[in-house]
From TrEMBL:
Annotated source species: Echeneis naucrates (Live sharksucker)
Similarity comment: family membership: Belongs to the calponin family.
Region (Disordered): 185-205
Protein name: Transgelin
GO annotations of cellular component type: actin cytoskeleton
Stretches of the chain forming a coiled coil according to its record: none
Polar residues: compositionally biased ranges: 185-195
C-alpha cells in the first residue's frame, strides 16, 4: 500500500509543499546554451512570425506558454496533413493548456517517446522547464534522423538517434553476434602470451 501512495504523489508533480532545495535542483538542469539553440531552430523552422523570447528561462516559458509556437513547430515537421488543425492564441488558461496538449499528442505521433515528454504543467506553471527542453531536443533529434526534408536548421544542433537500426536485426542475427563475441573472448585468452613476444621485433629494429 505504501508504494501505491508514493506513486500517487509522484503523478501529482511538485506541490506547494516542495522544498526550495528540490526546486533549485530541478531548475539547475535548465541549460541556457540549449535554450539558444532551440530558439534559433524554432525560428528557422517556423519563420519570423513566431518572434523570439526574452533571453532566460522566464522568457522561454512565456514564449511557449500558450502552446501556439509549439503547435507551429510540430506542424512544420509534417510534410502532409498537419497534426494540430487549429493554432489559435488565447488568454484563457484552459485554451492554452489544450494547445500544449495538442502539441504533446502530435509530438508523440511523430515519434517522441513518453520518457522524453514533458507534462503540460511543466511548461504552463514553469514547474520543470528542463523537461520542456528535453522534449524539444528529442523532437529535433528525430527530425534530423528522419531526414524527410522538413527539418530547417543545422543538423549538428541535435544528435542523430541510433535506435532506428535496432529493428533491422532478427533474433537469429543477434544470437549469431553474441556467439561471435563469445568466440573472440575465448580466443583472446590464448593471445596474451603471443602478445608478449609481439614487441620483440620492434625492439630489435
Amino acid at each position: 500500500m505504501a508504494a501505491k501512495g508514493v506513486v500517487g504523489m509522484a503523478n501529482k508533480g511538485p506541490s506547494y509543499g516542495m522544498s526550495r532545495q528540490v526546486q533549485d535542483k530541478i531548475d539547475s538542469k535548465y541549460d541556457p546554451e540549449l535554450e539558444m539553440i532551440l530558439v534559433e531552430w524554432i525560428n528557422r523552422q517556423c519563420g519570423a512570425s513566431v518572434g523570439k523570447p526574452e533571453p532566460g528561462k522566464m522568457g522561454f516559458q512565456a514564449w511557449l506558454k500558450d502552446g501556439c509556437v509549439l503547435s507551429e513547430l510540430i506542424n512544420s515537421l509534417f510534410a502532409g496533413d498537419k497534426p494540430v488543425k487549429k493554432v489559435q492564441s488565447s488568454s484563457m488558461a484552459f485554451k492554452q493548456m489544450e494547445q500544449i496538449s495538442q502539441f504533446l499528442a502530435a509530438a508523440e505521433k511523430y515519434g517522441v517517446t513518453k520518457t522524453d515528454m514533458f507534462q503540460t504543467v511543466d511548461l504552463w506553471e514553469g514547474k520543470d522547464l528542463a523537461a520542456v527542453q528535453r522534449t524539444l531536443s528529442a523532437l529535433g533529434s528525430l527530425a534530423v534522423t528522419k531526414d524527410e526534408g522538413t527539418y530547417n536548421g543545422d543538423p549538428n544542433w541535435f544528435f542523430k538517434k541510433a535506435q532506428e537500426n535496432k529493428r533491422d536485426f532478427s533474433d537469429e542475427q543477434i544470437k549469431a553476434g553474441k556467439n561471435i563475441i563469445g568466440l573472440q573472448m575465448g580466443s583472446n585468452k590464448g593471445a596474451s602470451q603471443e602478445g608478449m613476444s609481439y614487441g620483440r621485433p620492434r625492439q630489435i629494429l
